[in-house]
Amino acid sequence: MSRLAVVVFVLICAAFALSWAVRAGVTGGDHALREAFLVTLSAFMTLAIMSFMYRDNPYYKFAEHLFVGISAAYWMCVGFWSTIVGNLVPRISENLSEFFKVPYSGGGLDFDLFFLPYRYFYMIPIVLGILLLMRLVPKAGWLSRWPLAFIVGTFAGLNLIRYLQSDFVNQISATFVPLFVEWHGFGDFIGQLSLAADGQFVAMMTNLIIFLGVLCGLIYFFFSKEHTGWFGGASRLGIWILMITFGASFGYTVMGRISLLVGRLTFLFRDWLGIMS
Amino acid sequence: MRHKLKLVLVLVLCAWTTAAAQTDTVLIDPVSAAPVLPPPLPVTNLQAQDTDNDHGHAITLTWEKSADDGAGRNSVLAYEIFRWFPFQMDVVDALRKSVSETRDAVRAFRIDLPRAEHALRELREDPGKLRTLRFNVARPDDSTFQLTADYAIRALEDTIAFIREHGPILKNRIKPLQQDLEKALAELPQAYADYPRDGEWRSLGKALVGSTSYTNTGAKESTDKDFIPDYTDLYYRVEAITVDESIRSEAVTVGPVQSRGQWFHAGRVPVLGFVLMFFVFTLTFVQMAKKGANLYVRPLSGIEAVDDAIGRATEMGRPILYLLGLGDATQVSTIASFSVLGRVAKRVAEYQTSIIVPCYDPVVMAVAQEVVKSSYLDAGRSDDYKQESVFFVTNYQFAYVAAVNGIMLRERPATNIYMGKFMAESLLLAETGTLAGSIQIAGTDEIAQIPFFIVACDYTLIGEELYAASAYLGREPVLLGSLKAQDWAKVVIMAVALIGMLGTALGWPAFAQLLQVTG
Amino acid sequence: MGNLGIIIALALIGGGLLWLLIRAIRGKEVNRRLIFVFILVSVAAPILFTITFEMKPTPIVQALYDKIENLPEGSKVLLSFDFDPPMAPEVQPMADVVSRHVLAKKHKAIFMTLWATGQAQFNITLEEVIRRDFPEARDGVDYVDLGYKAGNEGVLNVIRTDFKKMFPTDVNTVPWDSLPILNGVRSCSDFDLIISLGGGKPGVKEWVLFVGDPTRVPTAGGVAAVVAPMLYPYYPGQMCGLLGGIKGAAEYENYFRDNHPRYAGMTTPAMLMMGPQTVAHVVILAFIVIGNVLYFVTRRKEVKR
Amino acid sequence: MRREIPLVITIFVGFLAIVSFFSPPLEGLGEDFTLFFDIIAVFAFFLGGGNLVRIHANKLIKRKTDWVYSIVTLVGFFGMLSAGLFKIGNPGDISTSVTAPGSLFSVLYFNLNLPLGSTMYALLAFYVASASYRAFRAKNREATVLLVAAFVILLGSTPFGTLLTSWIPHPLDILQIPNLAVWIMSSPNLAGQRAIMIGVGLGVVSMSLRLILGIERTYLGDDRG
Fold it and tell me: For labelling, which of A237, B354, B392, C165 has a CA lying 20 to 30 Å from the CA of B60?
């Protein structure tokens, strides 16, 4: 560690210690020290991550590694309590439910598919889960493919249907828009032929663009036909439509990103430094 | 015997409640002062049939509006629907309740006993703990009452004694109660068959004025309180009611009707149609491909870049970073990414360069290890395979990003390949990659993220192209066949869209309705 | 004081951009760290010295507002808090204002979450909105919190047909049957409106695919800006309204506040956030311009050579 | 054998899942399978955790570069894990939620996970800016279209859009930036989104088919494995 690094480190420590003390003074109350420490800690973590924008550095590395450790454990715990204890235990064992104090739902006359009591039916995932852990045993590692096969198979089936219905049938039938808006006679049509957002002309253009856009977009995705001639033209139109889409959603997203930064800065200014109300 | 008792009890209860109800209506009748209006005309043509496309346990009623609904005297406020309940249902219900209540009581005792004992010990040691006592004792409802330590101790002792005494008794009571419940359930069908003896009409709810149908959906678990048995005669009645609840049309009764489950969901035929279409297309073209019909596929720059990228990595002696994204193994995009990973890893093994695969999901990690390992085997370099090259980071989105960004700046991979489901982190990763000077190839079906990849990466596979990628890299005729099938599906879609559009343009909605998926 | 500060800050930013533009015309690239600094200033300044703008609701926001406004009193509305703290700055304001609107119209509000992290977010709304603005609302009668269940789309798959199976109790382990608000709720079909507040997966899209479409229950959403464009195709067919990003939230807040004088004093975080938004947007636009100027300048040079 | 059985499993459950959609009595099946997955996933969590620990312990023992930080990771991991599994400092008994306020678990979450996560996310604000500066350049037709669309939307989401173009008279008011932005979002954007969606739908469907028909089996690894 170079001398400079040491100096910087010491300075930073001093700065945060100071801010802790000040914070504690400002907060007051019996938990002041604790509260102040936690806020200061959060602030340190915030700045440590932000320092990554300058370049990779020990403080970022520290924050990063800590983050990885905690978050990995976070989901393990949540998964354990909400799924194993919350969903599995009540279905398989009354005593365990008693132990974890969760309402036992598997008992009584509750029968499920194949007329298997839940208790037995829900042994399947346990078995599969254990098979998955077989990976840790070199000899029996191949057994772990069964649960994987189960997962992949099931969701291949479920997804096939879901997407077919929602992203597909529904989206197609949504393109069934009247290309010509309601016909009230020619004079009326001419009268309404304005570029105004509420004008008939715009409405018509919109429908037309949506329809052609979808078609050309699909043409762009053709894999087994050369994109030449009229087909190529259509696919070029398609890619343009896609580009507009991407530009639009990029532009739209910026908004969200700024909000996030606002959130963080507000934390720093208000909760830590206390320089804004 | 117990049944009879329960029955009597319940009957008395019902009698009392109905009586109470009647007196209530008289008391709080809002328009009793107003001139009493004549009862509205009843509904006509009341029909009841089993609800379609369900697993049974549901009945749908349909009727034609009362003449006074919206027309005529226009006095109808709503339609009240009744079903005939055999009293046996109450027996079942009562038993069900007592079973669950006993269970709860037993559980509560288990929780309270240790707490009480603990509190007792504390108090005995130091009566001053009374204020911090975490177990509140029964107090006499007397405002002047002052809680003293020894009162609390006595109260606690009583409680503990009570629990000790009654806990076991209650526990032993559960089993017989359950048996009774089963017996009572067994007698249900008979009870329903006895209509109209030993039963009464009970309101299920109201359908708003103007409505002409009502679906009575029950539970399928016989232990549930609104359980409707299948293949059992049920009877319904509908009354048109007015502002004044006590003025109502005479009841129209319908029945018997039975609920049953259907084996096929008729509302989903269009989906089935498409499923079949896909099966046929895929199978035919795969067969054609197997027979060796040569299938053209247009070049995808993103795919062709993969090979050069791997070559580049080899020259620079730097690793390749492959990210499978945030999807878990249930997402098809992740599975697509597996097969791309397989191809890439094979090349990597052949070129004898190294690959890093940090994973977001443990299951995905498991699969990825299998995939990479077998690719090395296929390339005949199984000994070059290091298991730690495919590892789990964490499945907390931004912790994962933080770690991967670190890897990018420290390992300096020559190429980053992002394939699969990506969320907000897409740009964080891609920008850092650019900073690290890596060639970047991305592919995702997450529409919101494609723009960021397009902006920050050298090549991007857009949506569907990701799914085609594995076929492209694999070059196996079978896979190319399925691509062909995909394209033909597109043709069908366009045709359908065109017809549908023309249909709506010419004011001929029949076709659009064909595609309506209900339920 | 505040005005002075903002003026100085804006002047700094403006001047800096101008200088960069001139450098660009001379053909000099902008260092990315410099860009970062500009963004930092342009966001920080308006936070420290607040600026706000009035805004009109766009139709798609209006649609959701009207939907809630026109439901008959006592309708059952399901609100799912499918977001986490990182997304909160964007989505929490929506969650707050929509919950406020639902309760203000005396609808029955049923809260749940598909994200482990959503529970904490709901607690915020509970404290800041429900307990503060609706002290009379009773838990279990006027609103209920069913809490979190793991399983993402899986949860939706289950509750679509059988809610109780997934949520045997509410978050305080009160059994389902003893919650009056849930009387007559068996599946998602029994709700009058479903609103998912989210920005990730599972989120609004999953609600539409797995619940809205099959059950045909009107479904609406409030989402982080990033996913909003992806959801436009679902409106109006499969969704009955959408709040896109902080702008949507701000529009809703503004409109709700103007039409419900009773809540005139309510906090409007989203509207406050539009200040930094605007400045930052302008800065980014400026950088795009600078980038293109630079591009054409350099290309002309190459052509000359 | 090591590959056939998994293949059979995939095909069987795949078809089962499809059938269950069309047959009301089997509707419960999809739900149960999804619950199954969640349970398996939790087992996998422990697989992942184990892997994490092994990697970092390895780094630590072999004194690889940055091994010091591996200590941080391990400490964080085990600290959080014990806090969560043993519900350290949770108010009330075992039945209270693991994230209950006051528990060590939630304290760690709110003071470490939360700031770290949100900050990482917030970096996007900066990256979006640098990316748009670097990449939004009118290099060719496609790039120009992208640029213009983004520019209009960006302008439209600021009050300046209104200021700049509010002078445009009624019949042409579609050209006012805010209107134009809304129109782009709800017309060409919609078309593009829909095209991609249908495409993705197709991709998913045919990929799923390949899996169910056993054509695509990379995920199964290799017999010799």
Answer: C165
Alpha helices in B442-508 (DSSP H): 450-456, 464-474, 477-505
pTM > 0.90: yes or no: no
User: Which residue of C lies nearest to B426 if distances are taken between CA atoms?
Assistant: C226
**Cβ neighbours of residue A17 under 8 Å, at least 6 residues apart?**
none
pLDDT digits (tens), chain B, 519 positions: 455 555 555 554 545 544 444 444 444 444 445 556 778 888 888 888 888 777 778 888 888 888 887 777 777 778 888 888 888 888 888 888 888 788 778 877 777 787 788 788 878 888 777 766 656 666 666 667 777 778 888 888 888 888 888 888 888 888 888 888 888 888 888 888 888 888 888 888 777 777 788 888 877 777 666 778 888 888 898 888 887 777 888 888 887 888 887 788 887 888 888 889 889 998 998 888 888 877 788 888 888 899 899 999 999 999 999 999 998 888 889 989 998 999 899 999 999 899 999 999 998 998 899 899 889 988 888 888 988 899 999 988 999 999 999 999 999 999 999 999 998 899 999 999 999 999 999 999 988 899 999 999 999 999 999 999 888 887 788 888 888 898 999 999 888 888 888 877 777 767 767 666 554
* DSSP bridge partners of B415: B320, B439
What is the rounded CA–CA span in Å between residue C87 and residue C198? 8
Would you call A79 and C150 a contact, using CB atoms and an 8 Å cutoff? yes
**Residue B142 lies in domain:** 33-263
Per-domain boundaries in chain C: 2-52+272-304, 59-262
Hey, are the CB atoms on A169 and B493 less than 8 Å from each other?
A: no
ipTM of the complex: 0.84
> Which CATH number applies to C59-262: 3.40.50.10160, 3.40.50.1000, 3.20.20.100, 3.10.129.10?
3.40.50.10160
Of D72, D84, D221, the CB nearest to A145: D221
Are the CB atoms for B166 and B109 separated by under 8 Å?
yes
CA distance to partner chain D, nearest, from residue B398 (Å):
5
Residues B288 and B417 reside in one and the same domain: no
Residue B453 sits in the same domain as residue B334:
yes
- Residue B287 and residue B309 in one domain: no
The dihedral built from the CA positions of residue A108, A109, A114 and A116, taken in this order, carries a sign that is positive
Answer yes or no: do B244 and B366 share one domain. no
Q: Which tokens belong to D153?
A: 């939307």
Q: Is B424 within 8 Å of C229 when comparing Cβ atoms?
A: no
- DSSP-assigned letter for residue D219: G
Residues B388 and B342 placed together within one structural domain of the fold: yes
Answer yes or no: is B3 within a domain.
no
